[in-house]
Design brief:
- With 528 residues, the protein is an alpha/beta fold.
- It has three domains: 191 residues, Class I glutamine amidotransferase (GATase) domain (Rossmann fold, 3-Layer(aba) Sandwich), CATH 3.40.50; 195 residues, Rossmann fold, CATH 3.40.50; 102 residues, 2-Layer Sandwich (GMP Synthetase, Chain A, domain 3), CATH 3.30.300.
- 32% of the residues lie in helices and 21% in strands.
- The strands form five sheets. Strands 2-1-3-4-12-11-10-7 form an eight-stranded mixed beta sheet. It has a five-stranded parallel beta sheet with strand order 15-14-13-16-17, with helices on both faces.
- Helix 8 links the parallel strand 14 and strand 15.
- The two termini are 45 Å apart.
């Protein structure tokens, strides 16, 4: 492997210009499912930056704006003259049409939302093998009235004259529907057609190539320096531990900080798993009192996350003086963490993010400015399902690979309002019951996350002919592929009943259990 490839991470074969769509990251994930590497970038990316990346294809995402809005996001119009195939999706297609001389107007009949059958008008590379009258997902209020020179209509719906368009010679394509969402029957077919038939990409984004490329990059970055790993025991940090152990061996020191917000019996499980089963030395640090003291009186969830993030770093800094010195801090940051914490879309005039920040992640948004470590984050561009595949390839067993995701701040963000020892003990007991019953029912592997949330209110109940005034527990079970979107899980009523009965009878200070049936969006998976 050349010195150049050691220093430079892989460039994406497909880049997605983000115009504020909630689906931009989903587009990237769908492309990766075809074994082609893709990344979301700002719509303000320069032509010079694109030429440096040399992508084989460009996708213009959807977005909430109208192309005629005063502050509608745009891209450099020279992008259409680069000779690189482009696919515009929804807003992206409308923007391409407007910039190249066509006309976009409010939909003639009405806005089109939800499922709509498309009629194929002309055969094309983009719609090859897409069945006529197949269902696609629509979400738009504007439509194309007139096409620019050289474009032709290749599909329509009952309400949308130009459901798909193409300029065959310039390899410019547009679809008014969203092929990236699962509701579009032949959505993946459209994506594969663009990636393979139009852009001629190679299917070279695999677990094996990721490891082959990443391990030398880690070695080149770290060289002979020591690395301290923030180990939580979840899939991300455990996979990272195995990856770094393979890359740099004894230069790695894993440290588990017990901040007091873990699930019941997890600190003991973690130490036993790494130390006895895999002989990976982990330094255990008991910092429970320190963290709970820092959160005293704190109720704002963002402030909680930032305090926990800062304290994590401070503890690592202090402990590294005892064990180190260490030059690098390793973190299991994933691509969704980066996206949700920062987004990619920046207003060039104000410098503010166009996409709304959903929440900051402790390992992305809570780092202090005077950080003493350099960061090692080799999983930063991976989605959760990709991390699981990497972990499996590295020999991580199913008991870790298939564990449900657990947030870095732990139970501190599953207790709404102020965090106290009493609430933590209550939530740990309730959470254990949830997980036990889900496993006993054989549902654990089919659910993305199943957990309990404690609300900062008290409700009236009757127990043993006496009036009670205790906390309610929210049961949250969701199904997802990567955490970017999620549906609430349809748990059989008898299992919900068993969970509720056990919590109310076995957990002190709880007299009510409710089930959260909100999907993401509009909600998030976690409550804070």
């Amino acid at each position: 492997m050349s010195q150049k490839s050691l220093k430079k991470e892989r460039d994406p074969s497909i880049i997605i210009l983000d115009f504020g769509s909630q689906y931009s990251e989903l587009i990237a994930r769908r492309i990766r499912e075809t074994n082609v590497f893709s990344l979301v970038v700002s719509n303000q990316i320069s032509i010079e930056a694109i030429n440096e990346i040399t992508p084989k294809g460009i996708i213009l995402s959807g977005g909430p704006n109208s192309v005629y809005d005063e502050n509608a996001p745009k891209c450099d119009e020279k992008i259409f003259n680069l000779g690189i195939p482009i696919l515009g999706i929804c807003y992206g297609m409308q923007l391409m049409v407007k910039e190249l001389g066509g006309t976009v107007k409010p939909a003639i009949r009405k806005a089109e939302y939800g499922r709509a059958p498309i009629s194929i008008d002309i055969e094309s590379d983009l719609l090859s093998k897409v069945k006529d009258q197949s269902i696609m997902w629509m979400s738009h209020g504007d439509s194309i009235a007139f096409l620019p020179d050289g474009f032709q209509k290749i599909a329509h719906t009952e309400n949308t004259l130009h459901a798909a368009i193409s300029h065959k010679q310039r390899k410019l394509f547009g679809v008014q529907f969203h092929p990236e969402v699962i509701h579009s029957e032949f959505g993946m077919t459209v994506i594969k057609n663009f990636v393979y038939s139009v852009c001629n990409c190679e299917a070279d984004w695999t677990t094996e190539t990721f490891l082959d490329e990443t391990i030398p990059i880690i070695k080149n970055q770290v060289r002979d320096k020591k690395v301290l790993l923030a180990l939580s025991g979840g899939v991300d940090s455990s996979t990272l531990a195995f990856l770094l152990n393979k890359a740099i061996g004894k230069q790695l020191t894993c440290m588990f900080i017990d901040q007091g917000f873990m699930r019941k019996n997890e600190p003991e499980f973690l130490m036993d798993f790494f130390d006895k089963k895999f002989q990976i030395k982990v330094e255990y640090v008991n910092a429970r009192e320190r963290f709970i003291r820092k959160l005293k009186g704190i109720t704002d969830p963002e402030e909680k996350r930032k305090i926990i993030g800062r304290e994590f770093i401070r503890v690592f800094e202090e402990e590294s003086n005892r064990l180190g010195p260490f030059q690098y801090l390793a973190q299991g940051t994933l691509y969704p963490d980066v996206i949700e914490s920062a987004g990619t879309n920046v207003d060039p005039k104000t410098g503010e993010r166009i996409a709304v920040k959903i929440k900051s992640h402790h390992n992305v948004g809570g780092l202090p400015k005077d950080l003493q470590f350099k960061l090692v984050e080799p999983l930063r561009k991976l989605f959760k399902d990709e991390v699981r595949k990497v972990g499996t390839a590295l020999g991580l067993p199913d008991e870790i690979i298939k564990r449900h995701p657990f947030p870095g701040p732990g139970l501190a963000i599953r207790i709404l309002g102020e965090v106290t020892d009493e609430k933590l003990n209550c939530l740990r007991d309730a959470d254990l019951i949830v997980r036990d019953e889900i496993k006993n029912a054989g549902l654990y592997d089919n659910i993305w996350q199943a957990f309990a949330v404690l609300l900062p209110v008290k409700t009236v109940g009757v127990m043993g002919d006496k009036r009670t005034y205790s906390w309610p527990i929210v049961l949250r079970c969701v199904s997802s592929e990567d955490g970017m979107t999620a549906d609430w899980s349809k748990i059989p009523f008898e299992i919900l009943e068993r969970i509720s009965n056990r919590i109310v009878n076995e957990v002190v200070q709880v007299n009510r259990v409710v089930y959260d049936i909100t999907s993401k969006p509009p909600g998030t998976i976690e409550w804070e």
